[in-house]
């Protein structure tokens, strides 16, 4: 079944659950929030200074020339729709609309445009082109507006200079962790490595503003929707609507925490560097987790601590799976490790369905096993 098929099925199950009589108010509120999240598109905010290539990148992402190059437009919202239509929001608060895409001349006082178009790449995706004058106060206000809505960010640039870095500092860390630095292709030929190194702590990944960006963004969109689906499945299982195969799947998840064979082929230098980075991250993440789970002072792990441990393990496994999957495009030897991390993450999602503190220990075991696999690979 496709990811969208999974989501449609879970949406149906959530709706059925929420239609129950005498449902607890807090449970109903949580379920409604999950349903709204599943039904909402993933919002991608394309940001940067004026004339940094934002409109070009938006057109690239949607696969059509929707935005005219060089037009002095305000911020733009792009969403899927049955026909092409443009709605102009004016500074007076009023709106006007026209059939088709916008021309170069806009109604006076337009502060935001919403463009609807029947484009396949807009399915389950909402795009924002965030436009601001190169004025610090206006830029900070625009970034704040975008950050409140965005699930994924893209900053377009030629060099990510000091001024841009100062703007980017105001962006929440949660969005930074899901953002790309998109470097102008001409600039990338001159100093891609230099910019990527300077920005590595501020972005999930530095990429060239070209077709190279499509796959990693698509993966991140899928990962986010998969995470929302997993959260909904956990919610349904906790409140009496488990998947019919849940027991079997949980048993399989427990069995998954066993010794796995790792490839013995020699690693290429770039592959070795990527696995070394992954190992270093695992070492930081696992430090202290095993001690928390095995704390003998109270004979076990309280529910809150167990949940923190399990969620931490899941977050690390999902993120490293995605990073290694992206890197495997150019370093095929990493694909097997990306698959291992993805399988471990899926097992951890299933472990969340159990109520005892045992799943936290199992999740740590999985994470430590992955760490040992990387140590073996790097020692070969």
What is the secondary structure topology, with strand pairs?
Blueprint: H1 3-18, H2 25-39, E1 42-48, H3 54-62, E2 75-80, E3 85-90, E4 95-99, E5 110-117, E6 125-129, H4 136-147, E7 152-157, H5 162-168, H6 173-176, E8 179-183, H7 185-199, E9 205-208, H8 214-238, H9 246-255, H10 269-286, H11 289-293, H12 303-327, H13 335-351, H14 358-379
Helix pairs in contact: 1-2, 1-8, 2-8, 9-13, 10-12, 10-14, 12-13, 12-14, 13-14
Provide the spatial order of strands within the biggest beta sheet.
4-3-5-2-6-1-7-8-9
Question: Level of helix content?
Answer: 40-55%
Q: How far apart are the termini?
A: 38 Å
- Biggest sheet features: 9 strands, mixed
What are the low-pLDDT stretches, counting only 5+ consecutive residues below 50?
A: 244-262, 296-301
Count of strand segments: 9
Order of helices and strands: HHEHEEEEEHEHHEHEHHHHHHH
Q: What structural class do you assign from the helix and strand content?
A: alpha/beta
pLDDT averaged residue by residue: 82
Oligomeric description of these chains: single chain
């Amino acid at each position: 079944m496709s990811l969208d098929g999974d989501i449609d099925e879970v949406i149906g199950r959530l709706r059925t659950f929420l239609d129950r009589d005498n449902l607890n108010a807090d449970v109903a509120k949580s379920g409604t929030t999950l349903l709204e999240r599943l039904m909402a598109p993933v919002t991608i905010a394309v940001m940067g200074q004026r004339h940094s290539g934002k409109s070009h990148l938006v057109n690239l992402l949607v696969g059509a020339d929707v935005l005219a190059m060089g037009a002095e437009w305000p911020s733009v919202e792009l969403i899927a729709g049955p026909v092409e239509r443009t709605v102009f929001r004016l500074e007076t608060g009023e709106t006007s609309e026209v059939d088709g895409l916008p021309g170069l001349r806009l109604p006076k006082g337009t502060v935001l445009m919403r463009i609807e178009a029947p484009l396949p790449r807009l399915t389950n995706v909402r795009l924002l082109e965030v436009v601001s004058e190169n004025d610090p106060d206006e830029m900070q206000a625009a970034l704040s507006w975008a950050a409140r809505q965005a699930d994924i960010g893209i900053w377009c640039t030629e060099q990510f200079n000091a001024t841009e870095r100062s703007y980017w500092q105001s962006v929440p860390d949660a969005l930074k962790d899901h953002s790309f630095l998109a470097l102008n292709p001409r600039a990338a030929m001159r100093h891609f490595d230099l910019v990527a190194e300077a920005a590595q702590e501020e972005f999930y990944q530095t990429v060239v503003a070209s077709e190279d960006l499509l796959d990693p963004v698509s993966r991140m969109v899928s990962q986010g929707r998969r995470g929302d689906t997993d959260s909904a499945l956990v919610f349904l299982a906790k409140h009496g609507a488990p998947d019919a195969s849940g027991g079997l799947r949980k048993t399989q998840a427990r069995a998954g925490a066993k010794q796995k064979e790792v490839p013995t082929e020699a690693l290429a230098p770039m592959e070795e560097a990527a696995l070394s980075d992954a190992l270093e991250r695992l070492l930081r993440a696992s430090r202290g987790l095993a001690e928390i789970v095995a704390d003998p002072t109270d004979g076990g792990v309280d529910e809150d601590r167990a949940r923190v441990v399990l969620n931490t393990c899941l977050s690390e496994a999902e993120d490293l799976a995605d990073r290694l999957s992206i890197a495997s495009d150019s370093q095929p030897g990493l694909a097997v490790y990306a698959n291992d991390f993805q399988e471990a993450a899926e097992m951890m999602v299933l472990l969340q369905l159990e109520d005892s503190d045992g799943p936290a220990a199992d999740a740590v075991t999985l994470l430590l096993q992955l760490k040992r696999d990387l140590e073996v690979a790097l020692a070969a």
